[in-house]
Design brief:
With 155 residues, this protein is of the alpha+beta class. It has one domain (2-154): 2-Layer Sandwich (Ribosomal Protein L30, Chain: A), CATH 3.30.1390. Helices cover 34% and strands 17% of the residues. The protein contains six helices and seven strands, in the order βαβαβαββααββα. The strands form two sheets. The chain has a five-stranded mixed sheet. Strands 4-5 form a two-stranded antiparallel ribbon. A hairpin with a 3-residue loop joins strand 4 (73-74) and strand 5. The longest helix is centred in the middle third of the chain and has 11 residues, at 61-71. The chain starts with a strand and ends with a helix. The relative contact order is 0.22.
């Protein structure tokens, strides 16, 4: 599985170590999303360090397809098309690419000419609260499969 990571909180008063971690994850603004693989120990440490500013969970195939179709961009702010996917990757369309990304067969950020950051809208009906963890009824930290519901509200 792949993780979708979304920045929830802004820049004011951010811990310097967490700020550097967010920079490494390319989460420079609120409502930016990146897709990372879940089997990398370095990423797990980075998620723990920045947990007070982000939310993350397991991305499913259906949401990944919607996310890449609607919010995926190439350099020059062009949309990702099936023609691009067919010419630049071993996959024939966006659905197959999304399946490969979710199953960690291909890294989204390493595709040629793809912008690794997905810019999302603020969620409809707002966040649950940006001061508490998801387990406590807020929006921060690990949320498992519930990340897909949040992403659908943000696309």
């Amino acid at each position: 599985m792949a993780f979708a990571v979304i920045r929830v909180k802004g820049t004011v008063g951010v811990n310097p170590k967490a700020r550097e971690t967010l920079k490494m994850l390319r989460l420079n603004r609120v409502n930016h999303c990146v897709i990372i693989e879940d089997n990398n120990e370095n990423f797990k440490g980075m998620l723990q360090r920045a947990k007070d500013y982000i939310t993350w969970g397991e991305l499913d195939k259906e949401t990944a397809v919607k996310l890449i179709k609607k919010r995926g961009r190439l350099t020059g702010d062009k949309e990702i098309t099936d023609e691009y996917v067919k010419s630049a990757t071993p996959y024939s369309n966006i659905e197959e690419l999304a399946t490969g990304v979710v199953e960690n067969k291909i890294r989204y950020r390493e595709l040629p000419d793809i912008k690794p950051v997905l810019r999302l809208n603020p969620p409809r009906k707002g966040y649950e609260g940006v001061k508490r963890s998801f387990a406590e009824g807020g929006a921060l930290g690990y949320r498992g499969k519930e990340i897909n519901k949040l992403i659908k509200r943000m696309i």
